[in-house]
Amino acid sequence: MMMTLKTLVAALAIASCNAFAPTAQTITRHHAAASPLSMTAEANEDKEVVKVGVIGMGRIGLVHLEAITKAPGVTPVIVSNPTISKAEAAAKQYNIPRFSSEAMDVINDPEVDAVWICSPSSFHAEQIKAAAANGKHVFCEKPLATDLGETVEAINACNEAGVKLMTGLQRRFDFNFQRVQEAIAQKEVGQAIQIKLCSRDPAPPPSSYVKGGGGIFADMAVHDLDMSRFLAGTDPIDILAVGSLHFDKSIASYEGSEKYDTASCLVRY
């Protein structure tokens, strides 16, 4: 029966590894020199330069900003961070003409075509919807939101506004993962019955990072869940998810899945 259903089980054992408060201060620097939840991907044939603004100049925001500055056909024009010194330092380092302490300055900037959202997870859905309302395309770090309802609202807002929305599940674009997917699809490894994925971080993240971020399932397990879906080539039928706490006792009193530092999932495709 399992063979006829072509069951693939993703066994995930995941051990878990900036606050974003609004203030208002904008500075300009001058330099010389098929369902309501479906999103479609398409090639960009437009030769015009895409101008982007980046929200959040923490660790991951700087990673994205550096990549943007190296990418062809795209130019960052404004960055923001509630601690404005971080935004200023990033603007200076990467020669960005404007920086701000307020995310909405990025979203409302008339020169911005697309918004990169690299703020803490609890702000993602709100900023996605604001960007969509302003007609801006959106790239958002995972997760899109910290709960299902907000996720649906964010996706629907982009669909209704006719703007593109992409999330940071970058493993699909990694050569090694793509090679594994190709081997499965072409049956180089025979009939795939089970897929096992395991991810670990060297240490737990700060408890302040965990609180309000949606927990290990939304923040980390999402990568392995997405990769299992990518490798299986279809959508899940059944999911069993279990969280537990083994290492970071400082999060034991948190609500929901935020009190777990270890996640295990079984997924039937």
Compact summary:
32% of the residues lie in helices and 21% in strands.
Features:
269 residues, alpha/beta, 4-stranded mixed sheet
SSE string: EEEHEHEHEHEHEHEHHEE
Provide the low-confidence segments as ranges: 1-41
Average predicted local confidence, pLDDT: 85
Helix and strand composition category: alpha/beta
Q: Kindly report the spatial arrangement of strands forming the biggest sheet.
A: 2-5-4-3-6-7-8
Shape annotation = globular
CA radius of gyration = 20 Å
Terminal-residue CA separation: 13 Å
The percentage helix is: 25-40%
- Overall strand count: 11
What's the total helix number?
8
Assess the beta-strand content as a share of residues. 15-25%
Instruction: Describe the main β-sheet briefly.
Output: 7 strands, mixed
Question: How would you explain this protein's 3D organization?
Answer:
The radius of gyration is 20 Å and the shape is globular. It has helices spanning 59-70, 84-94, 103-108, 124-133, 148-161, 175-185, 207-210, 215-232; strands at residues 10-15, 26-28, 50-55, 74-80, 98-100, 114-117, 137-140, 165-167, 195-200, 238-244, 262-268. It has eight helices and eleven strands. The strands form two sheets. Strands 2-5-4-3-6-7-8 form a seven-stranded mixed beta sheet, sandwiched between helices. A four-stranded mixed beta sheet has the order 9-1-11-10, covered by helices on one side. Helix content is 32%, strand content 21%.
